[in-house]
Amino acid sequence: MVVLALATSVLWGLADFGGGMLARRVPALTVVVVSQTLAALVLAAGVLATGAWQHADGRLWFAVAAGALGPLAMICFYRALALGPMGVVSPLVATAVAVPVTVAMVVGERPAALQYAGIALAVTGVVLAGGPERGGTAPVRQRALLLTLAAALGFGGVLALIAEASDGESLGGLLLALLVQRLCNVLAGGAALAAAHRRGVPVLPAGGRAELRAATPALLFVGVADVVANGTYVLAAGIGPVTVAAVLASLYPVVTALAARGVLRERLRSVQAAGAALTLAGTLLLASG
């Protein structure tokens, strides 16, 4: 379970880093819609190859809900980032982990004492690793704060819903649940993209369709990495406990920060380094249970 949950955080972190890099030259909403469309095509091929449609059951409604909620949370997140300051908004969204952890504890999960300490250290570390700004920072606008909280609740809700979307016992059931989630992602995100286009908001990069086609391999990586991360999370949550799986899977901001350090040579500030260290300590405590 620990390995699967940590794999989830690595994949989500790399997907976020790749998506952020792409968003520098392609509109962010277009990155979301195109990457999710490509991922849906890959999943559809897998469902057809394995006959996974035979696993359809009532659990798919959880996948539908997760698929509809995800793009709404992403839109709130992007709007909050636009209002800024980003250094405050980004780490606050990591508190989304509180939703699946709370749900799991309400239904009766009780982590060991060391794991409680690990959860506290890991969540604190993730927030610090986001590099929260201090001194001289523009105050967080009320609207930005509300959008950030909405995004965190949305992302947390997706984590809780996808954990219920498959029984975790069959590859076919998992593939089908992920496909349904992605199709709903594409429908909701596509509607938002169409609305933006009608308002005159640019939906293509400066280089037009040719530049978008050139970015297809990177968009495919972002979409597939996100899909695989959802799959490994569902498996980890199925093995349980969800309280531990959700926290370990939520370490992706640390991965994103480390990727920026390695690829873009961004320097980690002391608060980020401290956050990474706390996250590592929390991970070790969680794994000890």
TrEMBL record:
Cited InterPro entries: EamA_dom, EmrE-like
Gene3D superfamilies: 1.10.3730.20
Domain EamA: residue ranges: 2-129, 189-286
Keyword check for Translocase: no
GO-annotated cellular components: membrane
Transmembrane found in the keyword field: yes
Organism superkingdom: Bacteria
Membrane-spanning intervals of the chain: 33-53, 60-81, 113-132, 144-163, 175-196, 217-236, 242-264
One Pfam family here: EamA
Keyword set, alphabetical order: Membrane, Transmembrane, Transmembrane helix
Family: Belongs to the EamA transporter family.
Record protein name field: Uncharacterized membrane protein
Species per Swiss-Prot/TrEMBL record: Streptomyces aidingensis
